[in-house]
Design goal:
The chain is an all-alpha fold. Helices cover about 25% and strands about 5% of the residues. The protein is elongated and about 80 Å long.
Length: about 150
């Protein structure tokens, strides 16, 4: 009788499947890692669903103010010092200088930091750089009642 686990001659030996399995595993692992990064970006971009399905406006942080009264974060102190990674975070959170919803403004968000004396732009606890008081991002959350 022929024992499959112990072949009797070299012509009956199976190919080494441990190497193939390892390669397949590593390939699947790399693909899942890349998919996980994409998924985490998508989840961050949608703000965990707290915006009630609100669509983000086009980013306007580097555009000049439309009517002269709007505060534009790019015109505030500190914007020029932002790194590409800082700017990417702002983009991921879909920050815009003007909110599409008048009830959801940066200055009534729980993550907003009030501007320093004499400044018009505040800040955010979620990303670096100046923030327009009437701005918005996908992670907007109402301030807790005092």
């Amino acid at each position: 009788m022929h024992d499959v686990n112990h072949p009797t001659d070299d012509s009956e030996q199976r190919p080494d499947t441990s190497t193939q399995s390892r390669r397949a595993f590593l390939g699947r692992f790399a693909a899942l890692g890349a998919a996980g990064l994409g998924l985490s970006s998508a989840v961050a971009a949608c703000g965990g669903g707290e915006d009630g399905g609100q669509q983000a406006p086009a980013a306007t942080e580097s555009a000049p103010a439309g009517d002269g009264d709007q505060v534009v974060a790019a015109d505030c102190e500190g914007f020029d010092a932002l790194t590409d990674q800082d700017l990417q975070m702002r983009e991921t959170l879909q920050y815009a200088d003007e909110s599409p919803n008048p009830e959801q403004l940066c200055n009534n968000c729980r993550f907003y930091n009030e501007p320093a004396d004499g400044e018009v732009c505040g800040g955010c606890q979620l990303f670096k750089g100046p923030v327009a008081p009437e701005g918005w991002c996908s992670s907007w959350a109402a301030m807790e009642a005092a």
